[in-house]
Specification:
The structure is a single chain. The chain folds into two domains: 20-161, no CATH class; 168-334, Glutaredoxin, CATH 3.40.30.10. Helices cover 46% and strands 12% of the residues. The chain contains twelve helices and nine strands. The strands form three sheets. It has a five-stranded mixed sheet. Strands 1-2 form a two-stranded antiparallel sheet. The chain has a two-stranded antiparallel ribbon with strand order 6-7. β6 and β7 (296-298) form a beta hairpin.
């Protein structure tokens, strides 16, 4: 066998072991000079996280804003009213709505984190972290611009303080109301069928309430008194108890008489707690007892049922919408009982 020529081994290229494919991928994926692009790299999830953080900060600012009638304070108040069923008089808000609005961005962030988890691992490198700051700033800027647009469009101007025109058909509904069989403040039975053919205003109050319930009853009384006699004759009021266990017939009668209501046009209704609670739930009249004060925090609604027995309007106890109640009752009282 011939031996290699002298010096041949020195000229032979030295072979080095190549890294395993998995190792090469790992090195390339984490190399700071790698540029997988905005959507494939950490730039997009960082942008989304920053935008979600800005959103959460905006919602927190709305929730914590002090009350006021102008500028940001007025916007925050109206935002809470429309999104969280906020009552400026009691401070009540729908906690479930608040929880959902705060939790939804966290769910989105979790999904983004899972899908882009490999790209986010590159943030372990300082050089990569320096490259994503513009994306984070862009996400915060986007959320800030959206928040600014909402404030500008939603802030009440001076002319908005005037009564808003009643939107009528634009907000009208045709929903079936829940049936009920209760007793009124004189002990007489009262069922939903008793009100068919008349316009019925349904609301929720309780006898020991000293905050918004008197205002609800006062607004109903003032509205009824201001209606033309022919319209007023077509309107009945059903005030459902929010405190079934404590609203006795005597207390309910005292409330009805104390506000000067006429029987049977106005009937204060109560019944078995669970059955009454189901009716209130289906009417979306929320309530929760404050353990510290013992008071019942509740939504302040006027649910209007037309002569055909359908829920036509849901209005709130809002000074700017007070005129809507009279307009809605007049509209419903003057329309035919059959289509």
């Amino acid at each position: 066998m011939n031996s290699p020529a002298p010096g041949w081994s020195a000229l032979t290229p030295t072979r080095f072991a190549s890294p395993a494919p998995e190792q090469r991928v790992e090195v390339n994926a984490l190399h700071p000079d790698a540029n997988p692009g905005f959507f494939a790299g950490p730039g997009f999830p960082v942008f989304v996280f920053a935008a979600l953080l800005g959103y959460e900060a905006f919602v927190a600012a709305v929730l914590l804003s002090p009350a006021g009638d102008s500028g940001w304070a007025a916007f925050a108040r109206d935002f809470r009213i429309w999104c969280f069923d906020y009552d400026p008089r009691t401070g009540f808000m729908e906690r479930a709505s608040v929880a959902v609005m705060l939790a939804d961005p966290l769910s989105v962030g979790l999904v983004i984190g899972v899908i882009w988890r490999d790209a986010l691992r590159r943030l372990a490198l300082a050089a990569v972290r320096r490259t994503v700051w513009p994306h984070a700033a862009g996400g915060l800027a986007l959320s800030a611009l959206i928040a600014l647009a909402l404030v500008v469009m939603g802030s009440p101007a001076a002319e908005k303080d005037a009564p808003l025109p009643f939107p009528g058909a634009r907000i009208r509904t045709h929903l079936p109301p829940p049936a009920f069989a209760l007793r009124d403040h004189r002990g007489a039975p009262a069922a939903l069928a008793d009100y068919r053919g008349k316009v019925t205003l349904v609301t929720g109050v309780y006898a020991s309430c000293s905050t918004t319930c008197p205002q609800i009853l006062q607004q109903i009384k003032q509205t009824l008194d201001a209606l033309p006699a022919g319209v007023r004759r077509e309107v009945n009021v059903a005030a459902l108890s929010l405190d079934a266990d404590n609203d006795t017939v005597q207390l309910m009668a005292a409330i009805a008489e104390g506000h000067g209501f006429t029987y049977p046009q106005f009937r204060y209704l109560n019944g078995e707690a669970s059955a009454l609670g189901d009716v209130l739930d289906r009417l979306s009249i929320s309530r929760v007892r404050n353990r510290a004060t013992g008071r019942i925090e509740h939504s302040n609604l006027f649910v209007l049922i037309d002569r055909r027995g359908e829920i036509a309007y849901r209005l709130a106890l809002d000074p700017r919408h007070a005129s809507w109640l009279a307009a809605a009752l007049t509209e419903l009282a003057t329309e035919p009982a059959t289509p």
